[in-house]
């Protein structure tokens, strides 16, 4: 039954907002993710000035690392609190503006212009709004999306990347009968069928 037991599970946007409000954010890594440090070369592939996407970015410190290396970073995050904490914790000045194509959405951009964080549902984004990316750091995004939305998520991501982009995906491996998620368990076979 394994994965079947999670298939119906839905975590609402309210629940995610509550996690941020309560500080229940065990998924946030203050020191950045060791796997990104390890595979940074794979992501960048010797290229500079890339446009890199952070789906469901929270306040990931890696966004600052990559921006400091001269790349431009775009993130999407439902929690406005997370986005504001990102800028304040790095002492980065930013401006805030509405996103005309998405009702109720805001875009927070560092004054330097190289970090743009969209505060909305990831499913509201499209390449016509954010363009296409050379790299994606998907750490905790695919595994946080409700299982019923996975196909939709993968289709969106495929739509957002350039032909020769690098997609780094971190998943978690555990017995789905023992943990209801998120993070959800996504078997390798499903990743292959989602992303080809």
From TrEMBL:
Chain residues that bind S-adenosyl-L-methionine: 16-27, 56, 77, 121-122, 139
Superkingdom of origin: Eukaryota
Pfam families, alphabetized: TPMT (PF05724)
SUPFAM superfamilies to which the protein is assigned, alphabetical: S-adenosyl-L-methionine-dependent methyltransferases (SSF53335)
Gene Ontology biological process terms in this record: methylation
Assigned GO CC terms: cytoplasm
Entry's EC annotation: 2.1.1.67
Protein name: thiopurine S-methyltransferase
Organism the protein comes from: Elachura formosa
